[in-house]
Design goal:
Helix content is about 20%, strand content about 40%. The longest helix has 20 residues. It is of the alpha+beta class. β5 and β6 form a beta hairpin.
């Protein structure tokens, strides 16, 4: 009689590897250092790792499925100058290696900005490099005994496979908190984005949201990480709203205007955002693509 537990390792089998991942990432990331042109930066501690890390066997394939948020502490020095701060990586996931770094500093003084910029430009690539081997190390360390021996006692090897974009357990994705980058509100800039969707009304955030489509009402997305207020709503035409990210300076809101244009087989959205804190324009553009446009496209389909 065949082994009913998992014949040929064909059916779904899952292992929770979060505790292993916490130890692995703490060992890999703590103490990362970089020095250049008289500046020095380092990761002083791993403060928290939250989320899900699982190994799965499905149809003979070993699949890593994970989505975690990592919070780090850092320190930068140049001569007698010193600056400390925090780094949040809101999404380290099996289907992306394009990480966004949310960096805050203990001081926003202009004289300290070069130290913070050094962390962003020189230390974060070192962190990315340390994360590159996570998937394969996860499989190697935890996958060897995730198969069922056959009746003769021989082990059936499991085919290792990297998870591809959209390959989530039970066909679901887990959306982490939206990303924000800490800001210096001395100067603000504008962001313009253009995207095209085939869409319908549905929930696409895949996470907690408090929102009502009424003018002068407040909304919160991603557990309150994004908040604002609708100031103007014109059905099938456009949306105007205030918008802030939790890590922006207290009370600082940008203004977002979304124009909607119905086309023959799709809907085009054009977004203009003003009042984005200085130095955050690139991260803000990336966040709209990653956490909004791509999520909507993944849920409803992308127009051509």
């Amino acid at each position: 009689m065949a082994d009913w537990r998992n014949v040929g390792n064909w059916h779904w089998k899952e292992r929770n590897c979060l505790e292993w991942a916490k130890k692995y990432l703490e060992d890999k990331l703590t103490g990362i250092q970089v020095s250049k042109d008289g500046l020095h930066g380092e990761v002083t501690s791993v403060d928290s790792i939250t989320g899900d890390v699982d190994l799965n066997i499905r149809k003979g394939r070993l699949i890593a499925i994970y989505d975690v948020e990592i919070k780090l502490s850092w320190k930068a020095t140049k001569g007698d100058d010193e600056l400390e701060g925090k780094i949040t990586i809101p999404e380290v996931a099996h289907d992306t290696d394009d990480y966004v770094y949310d960096i805050t500093a203990s001081s926003s003084a202009v004289a300290k900005l070069p130290l913070k910029d050094f962390i962003r430009k020189q230390l974060t690539p070192e962190i990315t490099a340390k994360l590159e081997g996570f998937t394969e190390d996860l499989k190697q360390a935890n996958g060897s005994d995730m198969y069922i021996p056959d009746k003769s006692g021989a082990s059936t090897p499991v085919a290792a496979a990297k998870a591809t974009t959209g390959e989530k357990a039970s066909g679901e994705t887990k959306q982490g908190n939206a990303v924000a980058v800490a800001a210096n509100d001395a100067v603000s800039v504008a962001v313009t984005k253009d995207a095209k969707f085939s869409t319908r009304v549905s929930i696409w955030t895949r996470g907690p949201a408090e929102i009502q489509p009424k003018e002068n009402t407040s909304f919160k997305l991603f557990n309150g990480h994004i908040e604002g207020q609708f100031t103007k709503l014109v059905p099938a035409k456009g949306i105007e709203m205030t918008w802030r990210v939790a890590t922006w300076p207290q009370g600082h809101f940008s203004k977002v205007k979304i124009s909607i244009e119905q086309q023959s087989t799709s809907t085009r959205l054009t977004l203009k955002q003003s009042g984005v804190p200085f130095n955050d324009e690139d991260a803000t553009k990336a966040n709209w693509d990653r956490y909004y446009w791509n999520s909507i496209k993944g849920s409803f389909g992308m127009g051509m």
